[in-house]
Amino acid sequence: MKAASFEENYGPYALVAGGSYGLGAAFAEAIARRGVNLVLIARQEERLKATAARLQETYEVDVIPLAADMADFDHVKRLIASLGVPIGLLVYDAAYAPIGRFEDTSEDHLALAAAVNVRAPLLLTKLLSTSMIERGRGGIVLMSSLAGAQGGPNIATYAATKSFNAILAEGLWKELKPHGVDVLACVAGAILTPGYEQAENAKPGPERWRPRMSPSEH
Q1: Which of 13, 144, 145, 196 is catalytic?
Q2: Segments of the chain with pLDDT less than 70
Q3: Rounded CA gap, 170 and 122, in Å?
Q4: Which of 10, 20, 145, 162 is flagged as catalytic?
Q5: Structural domains of the chain in order of their starting residue, each with its CATH number
Q6: CB within 10 Å: which end of the chain, N or C, has fewer?
């Protein structure tokens, strides 16, 4: 029996949350290169549209940009429902990382980290996995981090949210496999992205160090 292609397993559309730059854009490009259409969600509309136009022109796939904040999941859910396209692959790369001492971090920033890093990937996985189960195929990639392997000062909340995504993916891998849905946790290291640079710049001088790997290399 001929093995199904990437497009057959995970098409016709893949949704990449946080797909305008960094690792999200690298995931989107790798998916487009394999002939799968894209739905890209990110907050920065100008950068999002530029990435979508570049991928569409380069790989001749349909790329739908949706400017939205993953913290407002109800809005995101409505946007996805309005598209009416079958999504066979989810890559959740959106994240918010409050950097600094927990005692100095506001409740609003803590709530935002929980909304973007925990609530949104959990509910988006629930939303999209339902149709994947019905079709008997699909894939889900949840972004974790080496930071999620243990607690760390100044990133305690972010590390905890990344641990959540790794544990969620491990459990769903076993549950959804019989339905033909693949689930992975991508445990990223120190990747040179704008978000990483912003976090590093917030640290004192002696604590800074620069990663050697770009998003495309990862």
Answers
A1: 144
A2: 1-3, 190-218
A3: 13
A4: 162
A5: 11-207 (3.40.50.720)
A6: N
